Amino acid sequence: MIDGYGRTIDYVRISVTDRCNLRCVYCMPEEGVCSISHEEILRFGEIERVCQILAENGIQKIKLTGGEPLVRRRLPELAAALKQIPGIKSLTITTNGVLLEEMYDALAEAGVDSVTISLDTLDASVYRQLTRRDEIEAVRRGLRTAIQKGRMQIKINCVPVLGIEEQKLLEVAELAKNHNVHVRFIEMMPIGMGTQFAFVKEDALKHALEEAFGIFTPCGDVAGNGPCHYFAVPGFQGRIGFISAVSHKFCSECNRIRLTSEGFLKTCLQYDNGVELKTILRGGGTDEDLRRAIGQALAEKPKGHSFEKKTEFTDREHRGMSQIGG
Q1: Is 219 annotated to bind ligand?
Q2: Average pLDDT over residues 204-208
Q3: 188 a known binding residue?
Q4: Is 257 annotated for ligand binding?
Q5: Which residues does S-adenosyl-L-methionine bind (predicted)?
Q6: Domain with 104 in it
């Protein structure tokens, strides 16, 4: 799968639901979003069909996201089916960790290779402030289970929110010191409610982390599906990484597309470019119809985002991250 700018697309992020059991301030309003009806969400068989076609045309890596993917019933069954598709080399999942303890073994047995836990703080009061929920202990149990059982690679995604004490970020980073866990710091994406928050630049955060832990040495020993660049840190078992779409733009290396829970194939996070696949799936379309639609979407994939610009675009994405799939 090659897009109009010669980039090889081998990675798809699939949202299995727009629902979530948290209400993070940069993702959802306190009352939540208007949930899509169950009938409008892609069925597991429809997701499998799309993934089979994508795999036949070069997709090798799948990440399951949400909302919160673990609230989707029978998710391990979907994971197991996707992992068996010829050509799929990696199946990963991103979760907030609230339900991870109870679902960990089922996910591992389904063949999930890596679990990424979204965790911005380990402090209970700050966690409550950011997520509007008291679930930090459930997340801690899920993380502890994942570390102790060690059946899947563990990554932590931390979105630094301006105003949160620097020490709270250091505590998250130390998870990579004390355990074989990779901690990635992600710049706030100006998408949906994220536009209301100033982002913490990678360079400033890296400087603060180096002052606390020592010099960061670039390394390439961590396999990943996306644009994260990793560093080895003295005395750390895991690695520290950065995903910095705003200050360190990586569009020229983009290898991904996204499938929303409603069946819209997105080719760029910032824009609403893409193609509606659900109408083809449910309208009697053939596999060739799906291939043609996917190919057209790839041909029109934008060259890059413009997060660094404040101007408004008529084709800017207006859905929130919980609706897109992160």
Answers
A1: no
A2: 92
A3: no
A4: yes
A5: 26, 67, 118, 189
A6: 11-324
CA distance 83 to 81: 6
Q: Pairing mode, if any, of strands 182-186 and 240-243?
A: parallel
- Do the annotations mark residue 228 as ligand-binding? no
Question: Residue 258, annotated ligand binder?
Answer: yes
pLDDT at residue 129 is higher than 90: yes
- Sign, CA torsion 224/198/96/174: positive
Q: Is 27 annotated as a binding residue?
A: yes
Domain-located, residue 261: yes
Does 24 count as an annotated binding residue? Answer: yes
**Spatial separation of the C-alpha atoms in residues 298 and 285, rounded to whole Å:** 19
> For the chain, how many structural domains are there in total?
1
Cα-Cα-Cα-Cα dihedral sign, residues 238, 194, 103, 13: negative
Q: Is 51 annotated as a binding residue?
A: no
256 is in an annotated binding site: yes
Residue 184 resides in a domain: yes
CATH code assigned at 23: 3.20.20.70
pLDDT digits (tens, 9 = 90+) for 146-200: 999 999 999 999 998 867 778 999 999 999 999 999 999 998 765 665 566 666 7
Most confident of 17-21, 23-27, 243-247: 17-21
Question: Is residue 2 included in any domain, yes or no?
Answer: no
Annotated binding residue 94:
yes
Query: Long-range contacts for 273-280 (Cβ within 8 Å, ≥24 apart)?
Result: 273/297, 273/300, 273/301, 273/302, 273/315, 277/50, 278/40, 278/42, 278/46
Position 197 in a domain: yes
